[in-house]
Amino acid sequence: MKIYTRTGDAGQTGVIGGRVDKDDDRVEAYGTVDELNCFVGQAMGFLDETKFADLLADLLEIQHELFDCGSDLALLKQELRPYKVTAEMVDRLETWIDKYDAETPDIQRFILPGGSQASSALHVCRTVCRRAERRVVTLARTQEINEQVRRYLNRLSDLFFTIARLANTRYGVNDVEYARSAKVFRRK
């Protein structure tokens, strides 16, 4: 099989159920999810396999689920096949957030991206995830989507924030607090 097909040379690409322009909102949405998946893989490379075996397994599952998100976003009409992303997947992200947040110190001020290399990479995942969510919001204004994808990405960005802090905690590095921030968060 050849990697190149030449079918996109005129500025269109195939989606499930037809062809659209390469800058279509649908392509922007699933393309940003694909970009996020790449950053997740990169962030995984900064995590020690011993200290983060649990998190690495969860991140691998997230990579598969990001493919599911992309697949659902590439679907022009739900009648073509059932959606892959479910409410249960969103609920599981909340469970992971609670589990990993319990390991981190109380947060009082806004946190700057930084500390350890792993934490910085996970903060990049958080911001790319937020951009993917914005692209999905834009898409949903005019086209049919799986609403669970939007919920999943919203919750996933919260998870990335939490595990960025977890990375610093497990590596023994302090979060970088925003120096000009008042104490804006209440204790747990």
Automatic annotation (TrEMBL):
Enzyme class: transferase
Domain Cobalamin adenosyltransferase-like: 3-166
Listed Pfam families: Cob_adeno_trans
Record key words, sorted: ATP-binding, Cobalamin biosynthesis, Nucleotide-binding, Transferase
A Gene Ontology molecular function term of the record: ATP binding
One GO process term, biological-process aspect: cobalamin biosynthetic process
The protein's Enzyme Commission number: 2.5.1.17
InterPro entries: CblAdoTrfase-like, CblAdoTrfase-like_sf, PduO-typ
Catalytic activity: 2 cob(II)yrinate a,c diamide + reduced [electron-transfer flavoprotein] + 2 ATP = 2 adenosylcob(III)yrinate a,c-diamide + 2 triphosphate + oxidized [electron-transfer flavoprotein] + 3 H(+); 2 cob(II)alamin + reduced [electron-transfer flavoprotein] + 2 ATP = 2 adenosylcob(III)alamin + 2 triphosphate + oxidized [electron-transfer flavoprotein] + 3 H(+)
Superkingdom to which the source organism belongs: Bacteria
Pathway where it operates: Cofactor biosynthesis; adenosylcobalamin biosynthesis; adenosylcobalamin from cob(II)yrinate a,c-diamide: step 2/7
Assembly: Homotrimer.
Membership in a protein family: Belongs to the Cob(I)alamin adenosyltransferase family.
UniProt cross-references to NCBIfam families, sorted A to Z: PduO_Nterm
PANTHER family: CORRINOID ADENOSYLTRANSFERASE, CORRINOID ADENOSYLTRANSFERASE MMAB
Protein's name according to its UniProt entry: Corrinoid adenosyltransferase
The species this protein was found in: Paenibacillus rigui
